[in-house]
What we know:
The protein is mainly beta and 240 residues long. It is built from 1 helix and 12 strands, in the order E-E-E-E-E-E-H-E-E-E-E-E-E. The chain has one domain (11-226). This is TECTA protein.
Amino acid sequence: PAASLLYPYGLDQQDHKNPKLDDGTSKKISLTVPFTFYGKEYQTLYVNNNGVVSFDSRVKQYTPDPLPLADGRSFVAPYWGDVNNVLGGDVFYRQTTDPTLLARITENINQYFPKISYTAKWAFVATWDHVAYYGSTSNKGNTFQAVLTTDTETSFIILNYWDIQWTAGTASGSDPETGLGGTPAQAGFNSGDETNFYNIPGSQTEAVINITKTSNVNVPGRWVFQVDNFKVTGVPTEVP
C-alpha cells in the first residue's frame, strides 16, 4: 500500500522516456490542455533530467540556485540536483486523460482541498525512477514524481517523494561515494516574476534528504499546491 504514493508510471503506462544524457531534457512537449501556472497560461513544457519541469524553456543547469531566480524562468522543481541518468535510472513522462488515474487524482485533491470543487480533466506525470547523481561511484538512486493536473480553470501540482538517497552531484561539491555534501538539491516553484516562489522546507540544506518524511497534506513524502493563482496550503513551519 505504501507504494501507492506514486501514481503509475513506466513503459507499460505508455510513458515516454528521456534520452540517457547528462544534463539532458525531453523534447519540447505540446500540451493538449493549457496549464495555468501563477496566472499565466502555458502550452509547452520540458522535462529536464536534473529534476525540473520547466515551462517554455529548458533548464540544463545542474547546481540549483536559491529561489526566486531573477532570470524569468518559470518551473516546478520536484528535486533540482545533478542527475546523471547515464549512470543509472530513467526519466519518464506522459500526458493523460485516463479515467482511472484522473479519478484517483480527483479523489486526492478533494481530500486535501475540501473547499474546492475539483474534477481533474487532464494530468501530466513526470517520474524520475532511481536516478543516479553526476560523478557517482555508488548505486544510490532517487525516485520522485511531479504531477500537473487541471480542470481547465484550477490547476494543481502534486510532488511525490518515494526514495531519496542523495542530495547533490560531485560537480556541485558532493562526495562521489555518498552523494551528500556540496550544494544540496532545491525543491519548490519559481514563477518567473521574482515575487511568487516557494521553497519546500529543507531545500538546499542537508535536511532535503528527509523530504520523503515531510508534507503539507499529512501524507509523508507528498506536497500538493494549487498553482493557477499561487496559494501555499498548510505548510509546516519547522524544517525537517
